[in-house]
Predict the 3D structure of the following.
Amino acid sequence: VEVASGVRAEFTEAGHMLGSTSIRLSIDDSGEARRIVFSGDLGPLNAPILKDFEPFTRADVVVMESTYGDRDHRPFAATVEEFLKVVGEAAARKGRILAPTFAVGRAQVLIMLLAWAFREGRLPRFPVFLDSPMAVEATEICRRHPELFDEEMTRFLRDGRIADDLSTLRATPSAEESKAINHAEGPWLVMAGAGMCNAGRILHHLRNHLWKKDTTILITGYQSEGSLGRQLVDGARKVRIFGETVAVNASVHTLGGFSGHAGQTDLLKWLERMAPSRPRVVLTHGDERGRRPLASMIERRWSLDVSCPMLRDTITV
């Protein structure tokens, strides 16, 4: 696609969320072609629902994410088993399960995982609340585009009626419906944003239930430094919510294998296809914990020029 005079854009699957892409700009620089690739957010290989990323093969400059540049995630299958164990035990004691959820991507993965677990009898059926207007809309968009699903998801939809699997799922778009969840008898699971617990309806659920010992918190995505979600992951015993001090008596479980971002091994696999063309690599979208180890790996493996710019730095290509 020509996006400006002398500038063409190509798009390829990034595997991060439905419709996510990596972009390569081909720029006519005084008769010399320059190819600049932007990874965007890259998803892990073999993730549910989504197709795997498709790398480009040539580039002069690669601007690349590095969220998990320092480590790999726990294998997805092992994370599923942990999820089933934690949720099954919470349901057996009629507890409340709070899942801070990113509206696009993570919410749909959890919904499909619950549908599978209910269909296969791995979990007893219990009420599930999708308490995020954005997630409700995003899920409907996903439903309308099955052509973007991977083969495994397509086969799952073909082999059964997902409406029957999710007969206990209820969307709660209004504030009144959201508030009513707090008075429901357990067991139940609520998915609500924001995914890092820094805003949204999940804050109300946490304020109402975080201090209860029969509450279970499922952390299923990246938690940035300083966020309430990171405080919970790091084992805080007290947190501040809406100006109040709330004790953390709930059990907190971090399920890293559900991450929507590629781990170090997959990031290197994505870059591997372009490495023979000797691009300059610019690492972004990651703190120093992720960027520096990834930069060292790239330099050692392919002897490429790698930079880690800071906010407002200028990159000349």
Summary: The chain has two domains: 2-71+260-307, 92-258. Residues 2-71+260-307 form a domain with the Metallo-beta-lactamase; Chain A fold (CATH 3.60.15.10). The mean pLDDT is 94.
